[in-house]
């Protein structure tokens, strides 16, 4: 059942975590409104915002008064609530476990590798860029092998596992991590980009040319 009123997404357009939530809303064809949270000015640390997320981070959604913070939690919520067919988050125990495994990767190595390397290049964040790049390359090698001979991470069609990993993998070049040596990753990114209603996270001036 579609939401009665638009789902509000509090996010930041250059945040891959926010883009995961935005992409899921689009893929499920859910009516939503985007509210930009000014991270540079610290809006996420205000009392008003921390009523939505005490951890002071985007993304957060407000679905008719149901507040859900954290990109990973948002993907689960939206899939469970609005995908009656259970395609994006199947009930089946094995598929659910395999999806959870990739969601753990999306909150672990994907952040310490590609996302952190991008933070350094795009936002001048004080991170160890060489270490982040090294971790990103290790992750890409593992992901490349996992995608050998398959179209999506879990099962024959896209699930929330693919949505969770997509954005920071696609934007790895912004962190100086080239995707050239990884044909399976590039083909998988292309399949996600071909899904109906897909829209990318805007590229930054650092660019996606690595
Ligand atoms: N575990 C959270 C992490 C979210 C996160 O790291 N958000 C960043 C933007 S990408 C943020 O809000 N940073 C601002 C801050 O921490 O002050 C999720 O998956 O949503």
Structural class: alpha+beta
What is the makeup of the main sheet? 4 strands, mixed
The helical percent reads 40-55%
Overall body shape: globular
Multimeric organization: single chain
Number of strands: 4
Measured distance between first and last alpha carbons: 42 Å
Give the low-confidence spans: none
Q: What is the element string, with H for helices and E for strands?
A: EHEHEEHHHHHH
- Distinct ligand kinds: glutathione
| Average pLDDT metric | 96
How many individual helices? 8
Rg, nearest Å: 17 Å
Read across the widest sheet, the strand sequence of neighbours is: 2-1-3-4
Strand content: 5-15%
Structure characterization notes:
By secondary structure, the protein is α+β, with helices and mostly antiparallel strands. The chain has 8 helices and 4 strands; from the N terminus they run E-H-E-H-E-E-H-H-H-H-H-H. The chain has a 4-stranded mixed beta sheet, covered by helices on one side. The longest helix is centred in the middle third of the chain and has 18 residues. It is globular and about 45 Å long. It starts with 6 loop residues before the first strand and ends in a 17-residue tail after the last helix. The mean pLDDT is 96. Glutathione binds next to helix 3.
